[in-house]
Amino acid sequence: MNNIFSLFSNDLAIDLGTANTIVYARGKGIVIDEPSIVAINKSNNEPVAVGHEAKEMLGRTPGDIVAIKPLRDGVIADFEVTEKMLTYFIKKSHDHAMWVRPRIVIGVPSEITQVEKRAVKDSALRAKATEVYLVEEAMAAAIGAGMPITEPSGNMIIDIGGGTTDIAVISLSGIVYSKSVRVAGNDMDEAITQYIRKTYNLLIGERTAERIKIEIGSAYPLDEPASTEIKGRHLIEGVPKTIVINDEEIRNALTVPVKVIVDAVRGALEATPPELSADIVERGIVMTGGGAMLKNLDKRLREETGLPLTIAEDPLSCVVVGAGKMLSDFSLLRQISKD
User: Fold this and answer.
1) In contact, 212 and 243? CB cutoff 8 Å
2) CATH of segment(s) 185-255
3) If one looks up domain 2-139+319-336 in CATH, what number appears?
4) Is the model's pTM score more than 0.85?
5) Exposure string (b/e) for 47-82, b if CB count within 10 Å is 16 or more?
6) Model confidence over 159-215: pLDDT tens digits?
């Protein structure tokens, strides 16, 4: 019976991210790109809003509604809410049709545990998927970025998401080396929040911290100084207050998360076999994910490693596009999926 339903369902690729969930439908391309947030009514435990609508509610909900981020560090932290979120996105990608049983490919961090894998698979199956394949985010990102992964040569990719940074060296459709550090975009937001709290006694929300990171955050000095105005609640006076901060302050605030990412890249280069290292020197490193868009992070890594480094054309969608390409190549999918 499930197989009959799956005939009428578009197979889906999902980048189940800590910050955003992106859904790719075979034959249609990207159909959903929304925040991984669910607003739940505590009285009946039912979702009130999912995605963009739920994000608008962050920090603004009444007592009976709570906005939940069900994923943390790239893995499921709240199984029940993740299932509700996936069910909503799967139905939305099929225009809320009832008989939907798609096959699904999901990108996961490279150092995910067996328990975490099982949680992702079970959530997708309970959200009415017929089959679930898990692929490493770095591998999917490399395919999405158009890297020649099937060739017998070294390709290095850094995928910086919301919860994890995945680094991999790929050759002959296999991962020669992979490292996943649970420091990424969300940790940068948290570092900004803590810095402003300690320095100015000002409390700001998650959305404000993210805006600061996007507007003036950087990993290496900017060509021209930048500043932005932020509003928050003064911790001592207890009243709303407005301050102006500059890019140098935010760069200092981001020192620790950026250093963790830089050190992980250096570690990956040290662990790469010499023949593949020679290929990486020639081809360079490719960066994907939302974190790759932090201003001058590419310049900082170029200086630290001495290697050429490029940011993928559309860094945010590389993982889901790569996973989507596998929907048309099941032999490759079976070869590289993580069971």
Assistant:
1) no
2) 3.90.640.10
3) 3.30.420.40
4) yes
5) bbbbbebbbebbeebeeebebbbbbebbbbebeebb
6) 999 999 999 999 988 899 999 999 999 999 999 999 999 999 999 998 899 999 999
